[in-house]
Amino acid sequence: MPVPEHLEFFIDPSRCIGCESCVQACSECDTHRGHSMIHLEYVERSRTTQTTPVICMHCDSPTCAEVCPADAIKRTEDGVVQSARKPRCIACSNCVLACPFGVPKMKSDLELMMKCDMCYDRSSVGKKPMCASVCPSQALFFGTREEIERLRKRSAAVNRFRFGNQTVTTKVNMMVPRDARPEYIDVAAAMEEDSLGGDIMLNVLST
Question: pTM, whole model, 2 decimals?
Answer without folding.
Answer: 0.86
